[in-house]
Specification:
five-stranded parallel sheet, 5 helices, alpha/beta, about 140 residues, Rossmann fold
Length: about 140
């Protein structure tokens, strides 16, 4: 498992990550939203799909998260492939202040199911939108 900051992953060549799950802790932050806008721009240019799981303590649903990100993207880009792109976005609500091991285990099960359903490589890339997040340990 690689753990990277948003700044670090933004500096990497994104073509190296198409078949991996990118798990962004703090996925509803402004920094993460800007990163998703950059990722969408890369997607438009290269037609490389990514699978992104945003984990945060926002109380919304996955559908609401996708709609919110799509609205952000429409502020910058024409509606060309936004619907297709947001189908690769997933959301998981997680309370970072909690020490609940069951919550971490539930997240781990969700990640494993997502990797199997989408036929992704075993290794995941963990992205921290904020270095201060208490991120649960995720096994490969």
């Amino acid at each position: 498992m690689n753990i990277l900051s948003l700044e670090k992953i933004a500096s990497l060549n994104l073509k190296d990550f198409p078949n991996r799950l990118l798990v962004c802790f703090g996925g509803t932050t402004n920094e993460a939203r800007l990163w998703l806008i950059q990722l969408y721009q890369y997607y438009l240019e290269n037609q490389t799909a990514f699978t992104i799981l945003s984990v945060d303590n926002w109380s919304g649903t996955q559908g609401a998260y996708r709609a919110d990100i799509a609205a952000d993207l429409r502020d910058y880009f024409p509606d060309k492939l936004i619907g297709k792109f947001v189908q690769n976005l997933f959301y998981y609500s997680f309370d970072f202040s909690s020490q609940d091991n069951e919550q971490s285990q539930d997240l781990e099960v969700f990640i494993q199911q997502l990797k199997q359903e989408r036929k992704l490589e075993k290794e995941i890339i963990v992205i921290l939108a904020n270095e201060s997040y208490n991120v649960p340990i995720i096994r490969k």
